[in-house]
Amino acid sequence: MGMKDKDYLRLVDEVSVKFKGQLNDLEGAIGALLVGRHLGWRPLYLMHDRKKIRKYEDILGVDFREVLPEIGEKASKSIAWGAFQKFNNFWKAVNGNIPHVRSNEVK
User: Fold this and answer.
1) Which 3-state string (H, E, C) describes the chain?
2) What is the pLDDT along the chain (107 residues), one digit of tens a residue?
């Protein structure tokens, strides 16, 4: 699963040209997409709340779970992903029901 590099660039170009709204929202969506291609959508979901993920997906017109790898080759750099490895309920962690797992920091 996931997209090819040229597909990411084409998507970013198309969305950037058509975008209307707060520029920082567009920048956040593009950043999440491009970082997510290395980390994967699961670590990305631990870094952002669901509302922010939905907002970014709406801006880009994609579902991260369909265009990003589930777990990317650089997932181990995510502090949240490393903390989550001790638990087995991903969606509880995403929802914030497991303390000290959510983080947007990388090492």
Assistant:
1) CCCCHHHHHHHHHHHHHHCCCCHHHHHHHHHHHHHHHHHCHHHHHHHCCHHHHHHHHHHHCCCHHHHCCCCCCCHHHEHHHHHHCCCCCHHHHHCCCCCCCCCCCEC
2) 568 889 999 999 999 999 999 999 999 999 999 999 999 999 999 889 899 999 999 999 999 999 999 999 999 888 777 777 766 666 676 677 666 565 555 56
Instruction: Report pTM.
Output: 0.79
d(CA 75, CA 12): 22
Question: Which pair of tokens denotes residue 69?
Answer: 């790898």
Domain ranges of the chain: 5-74
Question: What whole-number distance in Å separates Cα of residue 75 and Cα of residue 72?
Answer: 5
